[in-house]
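Predict structure. Chain length: 219.
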Amino acid sequence: MPLSVPDRLADLPYAALLRPHTGPLRSDERYDTVHFDGGEYRDQSAGGATFLECAFTGVSLSGMKLRQARFNEVWAQAGRWVACELSDSDWQDSAVTGGVLAGVAAHGSALRRVVFRSCKLEAVNLRAAVLRDVVFEDCLLRDVDFGDAKLTDVSFPGSTLEEVRLRGARMTRTDLRGAVRLGLTDGPEGLRGALISSLQLMELVPQFAHALGITVKDG
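Prediction complete.
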């Protein structure tokens, strides 16, 4: 799936092959061309499960244990992921659009060619995760932790960052210029390797001065 994500289920290249899912999710199960539509999954264990060419539409997942799950060519729209365990999960060629991720533990995860579009991410733990070719488009990221993560070719067009932590992150060609707001809780130290605009730099000057122990006072 390219980074230009289809807006409709029918536009997915595997749409005609999708079959509806019934029943709970199970650990180490392989789900191939399955459509999860409008269901609610709560406090189930599906660690190590593989989702290949699957679609999630209007699905609510709460308290789900999905550690080391694999998501390959998955399309998720208008869903809720609340208090889910997704640590060490693997995401590739996938998209999450119009969704909410709250209280999600995804530390140590690997994301490659993944798009988050018009999503709200709140209290999401991505510490020590590896992100490559990931786009956060028109998203709200609040209390998101990228500490010690590795970000390569990651961008944030149209997104708002509030209370985001980057301390210890290693960034290569990470483009923050399109972000509407850069609200960083641990100061500018974590921006090493990032691309920012001159306007953003001016907005961050007070934080840079504080980090360097400089007092700015006129008169």
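Summary: The first strand starts at residue 19 and ends at 20.
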